[in-house]
Each structure stands twice: as structure tokens, then as C-alpha cells.
Amino acid sequence: MELKRLLICLILWVQIQGNNGCFEEERLALLQFKASLESDEYGSKFPILLSWNDEPENNCCEWERVSCNSTVAHVIHLSLDNIWNYNETEYNLDQNIYDLKVSSFQHFKELRSLHLSLNNFGGFVDKEGILVLYLNSPYL
């Protein structure tokens, strides 16, 4: 009976306190991913992912293109398709290939959905644990 009361109190406390934001490891991984795109000569010309900034009080679960589990605040969905808002006539498939590293997504333990199309990404994505990996584009 005592354990039951303790669990009820814990659940109530968590609900009252709410979620204080995303996990620091995931927030830093998102910022590192953005920085890797901006460090490229082409990528630095266009502002991308403006809500992704390094303010300490900034909750990455509220950033554009990021969805988190409402209970534990792990990133579960990244919608990173067409980051630069290209239209198909702006593509030059011989240039602007960004090398996508597996390590870009290893910090997201609960990631279930990843959309990467229309970015000219090259490289390999380890899809272990990801339920939806959207790569449906000749411009991946």
C-alpha cells in the first residue's frame, strides 16, 4: 500500500512539475547538426532552423521540425526535409552534397521518425530503432 501511495505521489509530482525541456545531450546534438550544415560555404549563405539556438533556457522540444515524447521529452521525430526550402529548379546535383554522418543521430535514443529528403545529403544513416525513415527524393 505504501508503494502505491509513493507511485501516485511521484506521478502527481511529475505532472505538476511538467517537462523542463529536452535532454541536454539531444539539444547539443541538434545544435551540432545545424552547425555542420552552416559551416559549409553554401550552407552559410542561407539562414536555417532559426529557432535552434544555444540559449540555456531554450527547450529543443519547441524548436521547428522537432517533436518530443510528451512524457519524457526525448526527441522522437525530426522533420529535416528541404531545410533550405529549395524548389526543384534550384538543385544542382553535382554540387552541395553534404556528408551526413551516422554520428549525427546516435544521441537520439528514442528517435522513431526521420525525414531527410530534398537536401542533397550524402552518406549513411543507421536506421536501427527508427520506424519511419523518409528518404523519398532523388535529391537526398
Your description of this structure?
This protein has 140 residues and is an alpha/beta fold. The chain has a 4-stranded mixed sheet, with no helix packed on it. A two-stranded parallel sheet has the order 3-5. The protein has helices at residues 2-17, 24-38, and strands at residues 66-68, 75-79, 98-100, 113-115, 121-123, 132-134. A hairpin with a 6-residue loop joins strand 1 and strand 2. The protein has one domain (21-134): Alpha-Beta Horseshoe (Leucine-rich repeat, LRR (right-handed beta-alpha superhelix)). The model has no long low-confidence stretch (mean pLDDT 76). The protein has 2 helices and 6 strands. The chain is elongated, with a radius of gyration of 18 Å.
